[in-house]
UniProtKB/TrEMBL annotation:
The keyword Membrane does not apply. This is Fe2OG dioxygenase domain-containing protein. Residues 226-359 form the RNase H type-1 domain. It comes from the Eukaryota. It comes from Oryza brachyantha. Belongs to the iron/ascorbate-dependent oxidoreductase family. GO terms for molecular function: metal ion binding; nucleic acid binding; oxidoreductase activity; RNA-DNA hybrid ribonuclease activity.
Length: 920
């Protein structure tokens, strides 16, 4: 193939039709087609370019009419534009769009002249020809794109006409192909038809010739079939005068040909449809078309041929087989069912051929409704009969006026202006597209009693039928049943698909391993829950097991379970809040032994309580500045210094939706203000730390606090039964807050990575998709704030903590250089602190700092704390990129996540942190 392609490219280049392309935006491929005569034709596949090209609406002549106009002349000359399209230059600015690539080293070229295959080529050429010959067209010349026929009466006149036509060509540089010109003949082929003095021969009589001409005329298009298919629209029409078929064939070049045949004797509708298609396929087969796009409005024919429906009717089977066999002769076939409106041309051709009379002109008043339903206006007497029928007859007894109107419509009658006294009842003459069940069963619509009484249009028409016609119509109807059933089935399928699309949108897929038990939680009927949906799936096998089999997930789950074991060795156990506890919190005058821990309160110096103390400034990081390209560098440095020196900062302009923050604050505050019995449903349960309760911390002492602990991410790890529903806003608020804080965490982590000088992804992957837990703490006021502690000194165990304070009560203190620094509450901010795992990940560059909560004497304090987990594929260890960047040795030994969690929660008798034991 290579050499012939090269030769063709050289020829096109030498003829200056193409030139090498330098800057291509659109590049098309070439398709080489070996012609039947052994020659190679090089085509460019412009399909993509054509898709992007607007349609040229220039009106094209109708081939049939031209053939008519060319016939009936004594003398004609037929001429063919010499490589027609290539005589027109491309607009310079469009040349580059026609670029096409050739195989091997031949290269990239573009068309300087218009070429075959471009969408608007036919219209452009026709426009040019119409421009050149506009005043001669019709009288002495007919033109269809590059086909020209000069027509005249006598020889003398003809020579004069020929001269006028040819003289027109030279100023425009238009050339004719002498080998294809037939001069001064009495008959000749034009557009595939034999044109001569006596007119065109009837399609049937010259069938062989017509087809032969059609083939010859369009052989070059047939070569092109690999790229653009031929399209055939077919339709059959049956009326009492006969049957007709209509075909509209569109060539790959866009030329449109219409064919209409009358068929005798009588056929049924479906038979006629099949005949139309068969005729169309025969025509296309004979012109050598290889790819065909078949369009028809007969669902039965299209679906039977595509194999979707079976053909059971014995008579139809013959047609079906014939059509199938023909289809097998094409290389590429597409069958498309189109609505009748889109098949208008074939439809009107078929109707014409069947002798379908123009719409009747009977004196009845007919009205077409907006939905296309044709209605007949009844006179007063007729109206009364119908009214009676509806009122007392078939539709049941004594309907109200409103219901009667509705029923009238249902039986195909429209009652208009009832209230105005003027009675118009309009009888429906054409059916709605919906098929009534009666018809689906029996093949035709039920005749209603009133139709017999007052006579419907249907009955009148029926009376006029001959016995044969009646028989034919009955046959038609019974065949039509199949069609109607298919249509009905189609409707049902469409509906089902629509419904399932709707439902599937809401379904999240989950995979389970074989043999896994699944625990299905179904919320009470009618309960809707934005957070959990109607039901939640979880695998279950004795103990609760995770759905996901990913390593990280298993670790999280197990660590949670191990934490949940009741054991005095755990740093944190949780206890239910009883009425007694509520009483202690409320009174707070007498501090019971188990809350009494003044030594812990007094351990360490608190900065800032004494006026004399140095002023200190806690780090504040501004997200707006982090996001501002001009200020980011300085702000990132600030973030770095906060994490390195304090392990903590306050984040302002954090970007979390204010509504979400406020809803969370409100819901949290409201929850704690509820009486105890309203909180009981979400009370902490045995073997779990989730739920409402309070910490039973070290040395058997209790914290002066109550809290709700919940897993918030990933969603499938949530335990919906422990999510408060009171206040009603709680779940929704927490869900939204959890989503927002998760993404805020990822954003913060991104800036941290930049600050650490590592690829943001190296740190982001440690946090992405990991567990998020939440604690909402409520610290009741205590008359003896120096004797109780809200939360004793600790570092946070996971990766990064985000804390939102719902009020302005102080309490949080962080330890730096052995002293406690109170963190003043700050509106519109989050407290962000580095937790243990992040310290390990950064190889100790960022520090996880100790903090505690003291209690206020007068005011309660409520905080919402989100803990974000992190690990490197199940390992807690310094990120290699950090070590590389700092050229440092690992300062922490690697430990599996599970071991890490166990270590973190175990109580150490020497009071050290597990984190410290990891230090190398
Ligand atoms: O409520 C606070 O201010 C701090 C809470 C805290 O540190 C924690 O839950 O780990
Ligand atoms: Fe903490």
């Amino acid at each position: 193939m290579y050499e012939p392609i090269k030769a063709e490219i050289i020829r096109l280049y030498d003829d200056k039709f193409i030139r090498p392309c330098r800057y291509a935006e659109w590049v098309s491929n070439i398709v080489s087609v070996l012609k039947k005569n052994g020659k190679l034709r090089v085509c460019v596949d412009f399909r993509d370019l054509n898709k992007a090209t607007p349609k040229d609406e220039y009106p094209m002549p109708v081939a049939d009419q031209l053939v008519d106009a060319a016939s009936g002349h004594k003398m004609i000359s037929l001429m063919d534009g010499n490589v027609g399209y290539n005589q027109i230059f491309m607009a310079e600015e469009d040349i580059h769009k026609t670029a096409f690539r050739c195989p091997g080293a031949i290269g990239l070229f573009e068309w300087v002249v218009m070429t075959f295959g471009l969408k608007s080529a036919g219209a452009t050429y026709q426009r040019a020809m119409n421009y050149i010959f506009h005043d001669l067209i019709g009288s002495l010349v007919e033109i269809y794109i590059d086909d020209v026929v000069v027509k005249s009466g006598m020889m003398d006149e003809h020579l004069g006409n020929l001269r006028r036509v040819l003289e027109r060509t030279s100023p425009y540089g238009l050339k004719m192909n002498p080998t294809k010109c037939v001069i001064a003949v009495s008959a000749g082929e034009f557009l595939g038809f034999m044109v001569h003095e006596k007119g065109i021969k009837s399609a049937k009589a010259v069938k062989g010739q017509v087809i032969a001409d059609f083939i010859d005329e369009h052989h070059k298009e047939a070569d092109y079939v690999e790229i653009v298919p031929w399209t055939v629209f077919f339709d059959g029409s049956v009326c009492r005068h006969g049957c007709g078929i209509g075909l509209m064939i569109i060539s790959p070049r866009g030329a449109c040909f219409e064919f209409a045949y009358t068929i005798k004797p009588y056929r049924t509708n479906n038979q006629t449809e099949y005949e139309a298609l068969i005729k169309g396929l025969e025509l296309l087969k004979e012109i050598g078309a290889e790819a065909v796009e078949v369009m028809g409005d007969s669902q039965l024919v299209i679906k039977q041929l595509s194999g979707e429906y079976e053909c059971r009717d014995n008579v139809l089977k013959t047609y079906h087989e014939a059509a199938k066999q023909l289809l097998g002769d094409f290389k590429q076939i597409t069958l498309t069912h189109i609505p009748r409106e889109q098949n208008a041309e074939a439809n009107s051709l078929a109707q014409g051929a069947s002798g379908y009379p123009p719409m009747n002109s009977e004196a009845e008043v007919e009205i077409t409704m907006i939905d296309g339903v044709l209605l007949r206006c009844l006179d007063k007497e007729e109206a009364k009969v119908v009214m009676w029928e509806v009122h007392d007859g078939i539709c049941g007894t004594h309907q109200s006026a409103y219901k009667m109107k509705w029923l009238l419509q249902r039986v195909g009658v429209l009652l208009a202006d009832y209230a105005g006294g003027l009675l118009y009842i309009l009888q429906k003459l054409s059916r709605l597209s919906k098929v009534p069940p009666y018809q689906l069963v029996y093949g035709h619509e039920a005749v209603l009693p009133w139709e017999n009484n007052i006579g419907s249009r249907r009955l009148t028409l029926q009376d006029q039928l001959t016995a044969d016609e009646y028989y034919n119509l009955m046959m038609d109807e019974s065949e039509e049943v199949a069609q109607s059933r298919l249509r009905a089935l189609e409707k049902i399928k469409e509906n089902k698909a629509r419904v399932s699309r709707h439902y599937n949108k809401k379904v999240k897929s989950k995979t389970f391993e074989e043999g896994e038990l699944v625990w299905k939680l179904v919320l009470p009927i009618g309960s809707r829950d934005n957070v959990f949906g109607r039901m939640q799936l979880r695998s279950y096998s004795g103990r609760r097991r995770p759905l996901s089999t990913s390593k990280s997930f298993l670790i999280d789950q197990e660590s949670l379970e191990s934490m949940a074991q009741p054991s005095i060795n755990k740093a944190i156990n949780r206890d239910a809040i009883t009425e007694e506890v509520v009483a202690i919190f409320t009174d707070s005058n007498v501090i019971p032994e188990r809350y009494y821990r003044p030594d812990e309160v007094h351990a360490g110096i608190v900065v800032g309580y004494d006026e004399e103390e140095e002023a200190y400034e806690l780090p504040v990081v501004d997200m707006a500045r982090l996001l501002d390209p001009e200020l980011a560098e300085a702000e990132i440095a600030k973030l770095g210094s906060a994490c390195r020196n304090w392990g903590f900062f306050q984040l302002v302009n954090h970007g979390v939706d204010e509504q979400v923050v406020n809803d969370m604050k409100d819901s949290a505050t409201k929850f704690f203000s509820l009486p105890l019995e309203s909180k009981k449903p979400v009370e902490v349960r045995e073997n779990s730390i989730e739920g409402f309760g309070h910490h039973y911390s070290r040395a058997g002492k209790l914290d002066w606090a109550q809290s709700v602990i919940l897993v918030t991410q990933p969603i499938e790890d949530r335990n919906p039964e422990l999510w408060p529903t009171n206040p009603a806003t709680f779940r929704d608020a927490l869900h939204k807050f959890s989503v927002e804080t998760t993404s805020l965490t990822m954003r913060i982590v991104g800036f941290m990575a930049t600050e650490l000088g590592i690829d943001p992804e190296a740190l982001a992957r440690a946090f992405r998709g990991r567990r998020q837990n939440m604690s909402i703490h409520h610290y009741p006021p205590c008359r003896h704030p120096d004797k109780v502690i809200g939360i004793p000194p600790h570092t946070d165990g996971l990766g990064l903590t985000l804390l939102l304070q719902a009020d302005d009560t102080p309490g949080l203190q962080i330890r730096k250089d052995g002293r406690w620094f109170p963190v003043p509450p700050r509106q519109g901010s989050f407290v962000v602190n580095v937790a243990n795992i992040l310290e390990v990940l950064t190889n100790g560059v960022y520090r996880s700092v100790e903090h505690r909560v003291l209690v206020d004497a007068r005011k309660s304090r409520t905080t919402v704390v989100m803990f974000h987990d992190a690990h490197l594929d199940g390992m807690v260890e310094p990120i290699p990129e950090v070590l590389e960047h700092d050229g440092a040795e690992a300062r922490y030994r690697s430990v599996g996540k599970l071991e890490y969690m166990k270590g973190h929660f175990a109580v150490r008798s020497d009071g050290t942190r597990f984190l410290d034991s990891l230090k190398i």
